[in-house]
């Protein structure tokens, strides 16, 4: 267990692993340097009693070391969640035992009063008999009886009277004894529950202390992990930069040779090309439509349609931009894989459908891909789940979910490629795209996309990084301080804030947005009974905000406006956070549009 906690501390310290390349320096700053205002109250950002697991497999992460950190984080989260749940249960048991003690004590006190009252009644009756007739025994009845019948009747009455008094007093005493016994039992149960809660508190404190204490002994491991990630980031930056430079050199060479780029329609018939252009022969020996070549200084240069070159240039310019899974994926701030393809070709006047499957269905297929063609990515069991723009026989441009950005990546192997399409050719009648058949998790743009936990709540995991470890370069500012969200959520927030400002004369007030892992740990340490287990809060996905300025109060005009209007901008106050929903957090809002 110590090993798991030790590695867990590594996750706590590694606040963010930036996706996009940057100078080789420590990546531990994301949680520590972003000063965040305290939320209106300590809150979880997740429905009561739930710990949403991150069920993504290791290959869905940006890097094996990040995946290893995620597995370690999951182990730590599981332990913390188990302890938290046990503590909640123990507290419930303690509360129930305390209530039983209170009830038993009340019933015992009532029984004491009943015995006292019954004894007083007996004493009063006996006193009255002594003062009038004397002791009501059989001898007195015999002496005062006028006949045998009177004696028998009187003796029976005395017996019934004695039996009634004895029964009433005895019953009260029995109730008193039972109540006292129940009280003793309830006190024992309360003591047991209290001891159990205290033991769980000790275990939780010990786990927290151990996790905090291992930071120094794991400094070397953390440094190794951080260095490996930084190296990958640097390599990606170099690859992006080199690719952009190569593309510019190619276009500059065409310009220097005064090659006039033809329109796409002029290259569709390889037997009738514009003057000076030569056909390009494919591996099947046939001339390829949509591309050509020209001889410059004894070298042959590829000639693409003007629209294709413009589309690739736009995609090259998007390198390093953040990834978003859905709404807002057509730039210019952030892109999805299909959004990048659509935006690139829309810029050159070639309209394409919006989704991977739709693009697969209408683009003319080719077997010899050239720069500017698009590659559809599977494998078949996952369906058409991603699309990229071909650069050469080895690489492509793609908005990649795992890397959370637009990058230059290797073309996948033949077992993963579903086919190639050429946007510069005439679109075909829509064809059915391959559908997922494995019945497992949904893959999109190279990463796993988990569903929303329930209606009105944001989807959870996205991208290739764990909760709270999303690089800030993969997020977008919302225009308030250092607050940031996933780019589509940030766009929706800004539009919503503007509309709110029209209604109230001021923009939305925000106290919390993306919450790095380290911040979640700190919050959990403050109020473990209320805050989410680190690595589970929707704040850690960049999909939630905590609001102020009146919105934090259920029943206010500001809150009512949000309930009525926020859904139009993709935002929701989850049902569990509303009045009577389980844990009232009117200030907590989640992005649910994608």
Automatic annotation (TrEMBL):
Signal peptide per UniProt: 1-24
Record keywords: Coiled coil, Hydrolase, Protease, Signal, Thiol protease
Top-level lineage group: Bacteria
Coiled-coil segments on the chain, per record: 66-100
PROSITE patterns tied to this protein: NLPC_P60 (PS51935)
PANTHER family, alphabetized: D-ALANYL-D-ALANINE CARBOXYPEPTIDASE (PTHR34385), PEPTIDOGLYCAN L-ALANYL-D-GLUTAMATE ENDOPEPTIDASE CWLK (PTHR34385:SF1)
Protein name: NlpC/P60 family protein
